[in-house]
Specification:
InterPro entries: Pectin_lyase_fold/virulence. By secondary structure, this protein is an alpha/beta fold. It is built from five helices and 22 strands. The chain has two domains: about 35 residues; about 400 residues, Pectate Lyase C-like (3 Solenoid), CATH 2.160.20. Helix content is about 15%, strand content about 45%. The strands form three sheets. It has an 18-stranded parallel beta sheet that branches. A two-stranded antiparallel sheet has the order 8-9. Strands 18-20 form a two-stranded parallel ribbon. The chain is globular and about 70 Å long. The termini are far apart.
Amino acid sequence: MRTLTDIIFGKTLVLIFILVLANCTSVYSSQKNIEIESELIRTKNNPVINVQKFGIYGRINHSENATVKFDRWLKLKTAFEYCIKTKSDLYFPKGIYDVGERNFPFREDDLNTNVLRDCNGITIFGAGRGTLLITSSSSGADVLQLNMLKNLTIKNFDISAELSSEIESGSNGVSVTNGYDNINLENLYIYDLPGIDKTGYIDGGKGLTMQFSANRKTIKGSFKATNITVENCAYGFRFDAAHVSDLLKEKMDIVINNLIVNKAYQGFSMDFGDASENININSKLNMNVSASLTNCQQFVRFSRVIGGVYNFKVRKSDSKIESLRDNKNKLWKIDDTRLFGFLSNYSKETTISIIGDVGNVDEKIWIGAVGSIDEPFNLKNRTENNLFTFDIAGTSTNTDVKIINYKGESIHNSTINITKRTINKSHIPQEFKVNSNKVNFK
């Protein structure tokens, strides 16, 4: 016969077992949550939806047909719409997600609207390296073409593209087009993008690019890219606009932090067309950039860049011949074999630091006017009002610093900090010493 003590002892054991089990479950759940948090690097409290819930899985083999890829694209579009509506984050497990001939559907499809599409603050994210977003096309397809979007974060992906023909267009990795606000990119590895040499320009092949149509009245607000690696692409970063005056109408806030570019035609490139109207004297780009550029044919190219803080670390281990070619031994650009560290034609109101070794180049620095052009409206064709720091090792075939002079305009009102490993003191150009410039030689 069981005594009261036995009953109490037995119940106590049961209670202890239940508590231990509950605690173990809680610990397991907590550990699992920590594991998930660690793997996904979540930064918000939105619900997370796995793409597999929508029947989306990675590519099983390379022989998928167009129908399978289009079906994946359709399901991704449905998932994107659903996540915006429910304010849910969208998660991709490791795998190869090929959508064929189309851009991934994370974009505004109406090309005529001037209204940004609100993505409701969602995050689209992968499991890190081995989570590949890719297009495979015959006529070129940017992987992520973020057209007219706001309030969106994309992170933890590999990005690449395949091209079966070089007749039409190349493919870019991430392109921000026409308008944007509160766009955040983090932890992306972008590689082997196909660019097509069109003689005069390279179509596609841009790791990260911002492109705006002429005279387009859209919001261009905040954009932040952190820990972006671009490898074996024609351009690491490329910023295009038809008219520099279009950009300076907007209050853009662009931050690019820890951009790493390895093997490129141009590592960091900003190239804007001439003004289409007068520019407010106080208007300038609000950009803050830190980048490490390795083995580039042309490391940094600025054309009509007004405003911003730019810090570049440069390094080259490739030979001069290797610098002209991609990893498949194809010339980046058949009609351009120039090698240089920095080109400014022109820069205004900037703070620019370039430190490192550019290896064998034609010139370390080209600086001055935009060329033999009479600039329209109220902009002067000259580099002016800048703070430059140049500490650039390497060997120049022609000259270390080449001045671009047009009608007496070259470089004015700038402070130039320059080191002896950049140029011999006796070879500092006369233009650096006049026109209200200040040279600090170390």
